[in-house]
Design goal:
By secondary structure, this protein is an all-beta fold. It is 0% helix and 40% strand. It is built from no helices and 5 strands. Strands 1-2-3-4-5 form a 5-stranded antiparallel beta sheet, with no helix packed on it. 0% of the residues are buried.
């Protein structure tokens, strides 16, 4: 296995409040994603896709892309 490069690993800061838990993800000090987990309801994500500081909300990190599952040579 290759050694882990700590510069690539995200820094995660967890802040717990009465009604919500907030996880902030940073790389090189730049905030790029926030996971918000309310006490009631599903978690959601705020993601800075372009790196410009504008965050968009996503209910899931699933991109919806699915690779084909057929085996090669079965057609």
């Amino acid at each position: 296995m290759a050694p882990v490069d700590d510069a690539i690993e995200p820094e995660v800061t967890i802040k717990k409040r009465d009604e919500v838990t907030v996880e902030e993800y940073r790389i090189h000090g730049r905030l790029y994603m926030v996971k918000v987990t309310p006490k009631v309801g599903p978690p959601f994500y705020l993601i800075d896709d372009r790196g410009d500081g504008n965050f968009t909300r996503r209910d899931s990190l699933d991109s919806g892309v699915r690779p084909p599952l057929a085996l090669i040579g079965t057609f």
